[in-house]
Design brief:
The protein has 185 residues and is mainly beta. 14% of the residues lie in helices and 37% in strands. The chain has one domain: Beta Barrel (Lipocalin), CATH 2.40.128. It has four helices and eleven strands.
């Protein structure tokens, strides 16, 4: 009985993992992009005017209402959006260079759509052997993004609830010379 139960649990755990690969430059790509909920026609065709695809969004500051006031973050992460509903979360050493911004092999892939001023992303996470997870934010009037660090699934997707917790501010930085390529995933 115990070996059968163990095999049952093991099959559930393995079937819930998202298979992925890491390329030579450290970028992570999911083997089957259909794993992402927001990689569906009804999401990729939505309006995206509030997002600037000629800019990157650089991590600027972090706020945690429970123990840390707003403080500057190291400028080592940025987000790049594409018009087809894809985006990349990229970590780098120091300020990103134009070569890093235009490199299609860096970063972790994700998909997004905009609902009024709410930015909803479905991104890959290296948790539990690999999974996709939601990451919500709000597009501020000046064009910056306020990402909420609480998982929306814990609060049944309620923006009002997750807005009260920890968040990060990502500053919009226009980039001259940005390549407008279509990601291969």
């Amino acid at each position: 009985m115990k070996p059968l139960f163990f095999l049952f649990i093991l099959s559930i755990v393995l079937s819930s993992c998202v298979s992925y690969q890491t390329n030579k430059e450290g970028g992570i790509r999911v083997n089957n992009p259909k794993e992402f909920k927001y990689n569906k026609h009804r999401f990729t065709t939505r309006q995206k005017q509030l997002i600037d695809t000629n800019a990157i969004y650089l991590l600027d500051s972090i706020f945690n209402p429970y123990y840390i006031p707003l403080f500057p973050a190291p400028k080592t992460k940025f987000v790049r959006f594409f018009s087809g509903g894809q985006l990349l979360f990229v970590k780098c050493l120091g300020m990103p260079s134009l070569a890093q911004i235009n490199n299609p092999n860096l970063g972790i892939q994700a998909y997004f759509f905009v609902d009024k001023d709410i930015l909803k992303t479905d991104r890959f996470e290296e948790l539990n052997g690999g999974q996709t997870g939601k990451y919500f934010g709000r597009i501020l009037p000046n064009g910056d993004i306020k990402f909420f660090e609480e998982r929306p699934t814990l609060f049944f997707g309620s923006i009002k609830t997750i807005e009260k917790g920890e968040y990060t501010i990502w500053k919009k930085i226009p980039v001259a010379g940005i390549d407008h390529y279509k990601p291969s995933w």
